[in-house]
Recover the amino acids of this structure.
């Protein structure tokens, strides 16, 4: 039985519409995300899946640890690092696609306390002796930890503060030390303690950029992600207006 031409056209239109629906050719990409970028990336990943149908499977941790895992064959498709030197090294060593590298955010270091009014606007609390512990991320693994140590060096406070340092494996664990009160102070990422430009709780000193090296955070497509449509789509999405609005709301710049 022959179908009328109108029915043929209707079926063709329906088929085309189905192809255009988000998720019709949905893919998945595994993303290694620097711990400081946890909250914004969770929001971005949800928006990304809603808008494109692609799914980003997120793992959070220290950039240095991710590098070791990637070198040992971990099947991540994208790295969102807490620095620019690790993605550059990954590209140089052939573990990722250098042409895909870009700075998705510039991080901001803060000295933070859970206690309101404890940290002054100039960070002079560092010179006091009435606190016992300060949480700092491992400077060998976490760029925010390195920035914290550079800050103490610039202020001439390293020798005075060092005996009271509690070291976090990454900036996420470092924040937990300070948030739990196990450390009265913590050098953490601004993104961990603010949202929409407002401090969520406690008190903080935003560390001036001239006290440490810039925290440029680069993204790169890794070898397992090459040719992956979801990986390419996510890299594009991170440059887009929606993602950038989220990134900016957590205190990052570009």
């Amino acid at each position: 039985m022959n179908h009328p031409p109108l029915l043929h056209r209707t079926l063709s239109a329906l088929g085309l519409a189905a192809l255009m629906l988000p998720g019709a050719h949905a893919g998945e990409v595994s993303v290694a995300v620097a711990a400081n970028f946890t909250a914004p990336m969770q929001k971005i990943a949800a928006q990304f899946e809603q808008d494109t149908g692609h799914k980003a499977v997120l793992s959070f941790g220290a950039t240095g640890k991710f590098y070791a895992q990637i070198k040992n064959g971990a099947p991540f498709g994208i790295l969102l690092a807490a620095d620019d030197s690790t993605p550059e090294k990954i590209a140089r060593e052939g573990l990722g696609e250098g042409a895909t590298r870009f700075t998705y955010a510039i991080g901001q270091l803060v000295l933070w306390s859970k206690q309101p009014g404890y940290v002054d606007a100039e960070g002079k609390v560092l010179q006091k002796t009435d606190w016992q512990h300060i949480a700092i991320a491992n400077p060998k693994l976490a760029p925010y930890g390195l920035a914290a140590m550079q800050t103490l060096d610039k202020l001439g406070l390293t020798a005075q503060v060092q005996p009271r340092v509690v070291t976090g494996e990454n900036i996420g664990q470092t924040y937990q030390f300070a948030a739990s009160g196990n450390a009265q102070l913590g050098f953490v990422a601004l993104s961990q303690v603010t949202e929409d430009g407002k401090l969520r709780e406690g008190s903080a000193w935003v560390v001036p950029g001239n006290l440490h090296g810039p925290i440029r955070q680069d993204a790169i497509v890794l070898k397992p992600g090459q040719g992956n449509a979801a990986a390419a789509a996510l890299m594009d999405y991170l440059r887009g207006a929606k993602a950038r609005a989220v990134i900016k709301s957590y205190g990052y710049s570009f």
About this structure: Residues 26-107+215-249 form a domain with the D-Maltodextrin-Binding Protein; domain 2 fold (CATH 3.40.190.10). The chain has two domains: 26-107+215-249, 109-211. The chain has ten helices and twelve strands.
